[in-house]
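So, can you check this record?

>
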Amino acid sequence: MKLNTTVLLLFASLMFTSCNKNDDDNQNNNPNIPNAVFDTGNLINTSLPQYNQMQFPGNYITLNSNYGIKGVVLYYAGNNNYSAFELSDPNHAISSCSNLTVNGIVATCNCADENAYEILNGTRQEGTGGQYTMVRYFVEVSGSVIRVFNN
């Protein structure tokens, strides 16, 4: 009985110490994107007409620069699977041209090199220079409210 309790406590302590909110947070390793602290709260409610399209797979919305550094893109892939990314090119220092413009599922940089990324998973498109993928933000769904945050 004592051995089972010891094993259980050891397993529980490993679970709590091995997982960290920042484990998947590649922005800490990216010198181009400072940490943006924000929370959309109840802003994105799919019952409202301006966010209704987020009930249907393949749609996205962009949020202005009150959220993130240059704004945020929120994409709905279906089956309650949402992804949210920073709209500043992760492979450029923040500048007037580092803003990403979304067309379909591709976000393209306005700088001369036209870096491009997929908003499904934040990966670089072929031909995009630099080592970084898009900075991902956290998404939480509660009923018809989609919360995007980074804090």
Summary: The beta strands are 38-39, 44-45, 60-63, 72-78, 81-86, 100-103, 106-109, 116-118, 136-142, 145-150. The chain is about 10% helix and 30% strand.
